Amino acid sequence: MHQGSGILSVRQRRLAWLGFLLAALQAPVSAWLVSDGSWLFSLCVALMVATVIIADDAARRRPANARPGD
């Protein structure tokens, strides 16, 4: 059984992980340094990137001959 291909290339996947880690690490640092709620933006960006990584992971785990509706 062959694995399906994801929506991201290997390079894009690595960059997405890097972006996720940087945004996730920046949120608590900016929350500690800044008194306003602007750190929530970093948290939202990290969650959106994590959603794309999870969607790519699900597409990679789907068998290559599976139809999207199944």
Radius of gyration: 16 Å
Count of DSSP strands: 0
Average pLDDT reading: 87
Helical content band: 55-70%
Shape verdict: elongated
Element order, helices and strands? HH
The biggest beta sheet is recorded as: none
- Output the structural class: mainly alpha
> What proportion of the residues form beta strands (DSSP E)?
under 5%
Number of domains: 1
Low-confidence stretches: none
Q: Please count the helical segments.
A: 2
Report the end-to-end length measured between terminal Cα atoms. Answer: 16 Å
Transmembrane segments: 15-33, 39-59
Keywords: Membrane, Transmembrane, Transmembrane helix
Summed up, what is this model?
Helices cover about 65% and strands about 0% of the residues. It has about 70 residues and is mainly α. The model has no long low-confidence stretch (mean pLDDT about 85).
Overview of this structure, please?
The chain crosses the membrane at residues 15-33, 39-59. This protein has one domain (10-61). It is 67% helix and 0% strand. It contains two helices and no strands. It has helices at residues 10-33, 39-61. α1 packs antiparallel against α2 (39-61). The longest helix is centred in the N-terminal third of the chain and has 24 residues, at 10-33. The model has no long low-confidence stretch (mean pLDDT 87).
